[in-house]
Write a structure and sequence with these properties.
alpha/beta; Spore Coat Polysaccharide Biosynthesis Protein SpsA, Chain A; 2 domains; 7-stranded mixed β-sheet; 3-stranded mixed β-sheet; 10 strands; elongated; transmembrane; transferase; glycosyltransferase; membrane
Amino acid sequence: MPLLDIVYYSFVVVICIQTLFYLGIFSKFAFKKVKHNPKKNIPVSVIVCAKNEAQNLKNFLPSILQQDYPNFEVILINDSSRDNTLEVMEHFKAQHNNIKIVNVKNIEAFWANKKYALTLGIKAAKNHTLLFTDADCKPVSNQWINEMSSCFSDNKTIVLGYGSYKRIKGSLLNLLIRFETLLTATQYFSYASIGMPYMAVGRNLAYRSETFYEARGFMNHIDINSGDDDLFVNEIATAANTSICVTKNSFTVSLPKTTFKDWILQKRRHISTAHRYRLKHKLMLTAFYASQFLFWGLAVTLLAAMFNWELVLALVAFRFFMLYLILGQTARKLGEKGLLPVLPILELFLISMQMVIFIKNLISKPHHWK
């Protein structure tokens, strides 16, 4: 069989795989009706782990303290900060009686390990329902705790929320960050929707303390600095105990990285945990990203050679129809604007950057969380 025939049939297989992902899996979340649960008013402990975040705490902690919720405390964890993070925490504590400070100092066994700091914060919480976010995150409304806590039930002990990034006009990096965030959310919300939850983001995540202790906390992956969110959820989440919360008032928004260097370092830390996912999750994620990469490579090869170009072009058009249909619907659901006009450019650029990050991680591993 001629080489171009092999390339062509491989391309058809890739299109079939992409169809399976977009129409068979991702559509389950894209077209899922957003569910509004009744308020439960259960006691909640909001946990914020901060390392050198003095200014961000000044800017964003008030949006947590001003939540319209009758019974919540805020656990502020100072993870061996070198700036005046602790002083800022103490300033807020003097004004609010629902703040508890956990001051963590480095010890040799858990040097610069966020999971160690989070564990101390979780142990200090008086409530069983724990809601996590970062120091550079801001709830989009004063109903954030209400919305996230309403998704708990007798069986549902883990709630996956959406953490967006602030929009910066005129920034290619910002478009790329928000597109990658949208694509990642499309995947983890979709898999959760079909009963196969595999990850979450610590910017907006909630679970019960008994779930944490039943899993022995972070002990099974304490040797990896990252993964307090995705590895923990990958280990314990099931169809029975996990729910998602994507009501508009449940979102958080974070400050995005402003340089490619900082963003690549952040993504290197995130991606470094993927090899510890369950095998079925690794296979699914690998198949999706491989099919994305092969789509571009094989399409360009076939069109450059003008091989069956009419059929190839039709398949390319069909694939982009799926992309715009599913990601467009998901973007509207998650409030992401300005991405659709440059979707193909962002996808190609993201695939290239992911390849660079993968190669960098093969050469050397990222270490401290900050």
